[in-house]
Amino acid sequence: MAWTGQCPDCREWNTLVEQAIPKPAPKATGRAAAGGNGRSLGAGSAGRPVRLSEVAASRVKRLSTGIGELDRVLGGGIVPGSLILLGGPPGIGKSTLTGMALANLQTGGASTLYVSGEESASQVRMRAERLGPAALDAMVLAESSLETVLGTIEEQRPAVCVIDSIQTMHSSELSGAPGSVGQVREAANALAEQAKRLDVAVILVGHVTKEGSLAGPRVLEHLVDCVLRFEGERERTWRTLSAIKNRFGATSEVGVFEMRSGGLTEVLDPSARFVEEATGAQGSVVLASMEGTRPVLVEVQALVSPSELEVPRRVVNGIDRNRLSMILAVLARHVRLGLGTADVFVNVVGGVRIDEPGADLAVALAVASAQRGEPLSGPDGRPLACFGELGLTGDLRYVAHADRRVAEATRFGLSPVIGPGGERLSGLSPCVTVRQAMKVAFSGLKAESEAAAA
Ligand code: TYD
Ligand code: MG
Q1: What's the CA-to-centroid distance between 91 and ligand 1, angstroms?
Q2: DSSP per-residue codes, 206-256
């Protein structure tokens, strides 16, 4: 295709995307071609709907990757013939994770193929050597030509195939550079079609941009059955794996890993690791959060400093920025904590991303603690734990699984936990409004313990 910078129709620049011309569909045959029902033009042949109960239920046996946290996030392992997109920033451990999974699958008797478009076979081997002898059993193909990769899969028919990465694949039928929207889309489409046809499960590794979205077209997310996000702070060793989309399971499960010298290790008790690191310093509070089906304690930190900007900064890491704006508005209105001229930074420690409203109170308390310069701690000097959603009217709203959150905090000696009332739970210090929660957090718990000591 010739390079065309400007769209001849709408006169916009750089909006054109190259696309391969689809091969003509085979001529219609049978009933449709015979035009049997003689209906007017436009009506195709009629399909035959079937009752769902009569559809043969496919009891697929999932393939275990041998990595418990990965299997759990996938909803119980890899579904044969499914298409999985694993996105993450460079250096986070995508190649390590997929390499480990393939090694385990291969050892478990499933045939595998690791297609590396980024590294040479010897580079892949070097990584595998760090992961242990089993990793060397996996089959590798260092190739970035889409046609060659498709041909190899056609011939080898592995049970599971990893394409590392989808951005390096390029088709000779398109002139666009590897990684361009047209190329990525073409490669993903062709691989998806083949995966379904041959019942090969394909894991597409994808790079994400700095903003956190997957480089390349969003169409990838629609195309695949499952979108996994692998993230963390590169300088630190924590990694979290979560599903953004999953046709075969829940999207709320989060797997926690630690990058070590011998590859990724599963962190089976993340609360223990995060609480251990919690400081109890000013601006720090422990959130009793739910990550899918399991409670996890994470540290939420805030920093408030006078701003030199017209529009003060709101910087978040691990929570939604709009949510912070809402919480600051509630604080301003209902506890008279004005931060209109201050920069506010909020961070969830460990690179964890919290996607639930139950985090509101933790953010509010961390910000208030940072603003007042007063540390928040429980009666015995341990970090303070809390949870709960803030309503716009300043009420503290109920969130699911209060009992499990409180139990998890109690397990680490972090009680009483401040949270919404409604349920009578031992270890919970129930509050009805954010104002009341503030009061209890800054004086109530201390007063309680002093009274007990007297
Ligand atoms: P890698 O899987 O190559 O990341 P990605 O494919 O997402 O770009 O691994 C990235 C980092 O992990 C690399 O800097 C080295 C480190 N690493 C370890 O610390 N231990 C190990 O056992 C391995 C294989 C990698
Ligand atoms: Mg890689």
Answers
A1: 6
A2: EEB-TTSSBSS-THHHHHSSEEEEEE--TTSSEEEEEEEEETTS-S--EEE
Closest ligand 1 atom, CA of 237? Answer: 19
Please tell me the distance from the alpha carbon of residue 166 to that of residue 85, in angstroms, as a whole number: 9
Decide if pLDDT at 284 tops 80.
yes
Rounded distance from Cα 112 to ligand 1 centre (Å): 21
Mutate to test the pocket of ligand 1, among 129, 236, 259, 264 (most ligand atoms within 8 A of CB): 259
Residue 181: per-residue pLDDT: 83
- In this predicted model, what pLDDT tens digit does every residue of 192-231 receive, in sequence order? 999 999 999 999 999 886 665 665 556 788 889 999 999 8
Q: What is the pLDDT of residues 246-269, one digit of tens each?
A: 998 887 788 989 999 888 999 888
Measured from the Cα of 94, ligand 1's closest atom is 7
Cα dihedral: 140, 145, 147, 150 (round 10): 30
According to CATH, what is the number of the domain 68-268? 3.40.50.300
Nearest alpha-carbon partner for 215 in 247, 190, 178, 252: 178
Q: With a cut of 90, say whether residue 410 has pLDDT above it.
A: yes
Q: How far is the CA of 414 from the centre of ligand 1 (A)?
A: 35
State the fold for domain 272-453.
Ribosomal Protein S5; domain 2 (3.30.230)
pLDDT at 275: 86
State both tokens at 206. 């994808």
Domain boundaries, the chain: 68-268, 272-453
User: What's the pLDDT tens digit per position in 38-71?
Assistant: 445 667 788 888 888 887 776 778 999 999 999 9
Pocket of ligand 1 (CB under 6 A): 88, 90-96, 127, 130-131, 259, 261-263
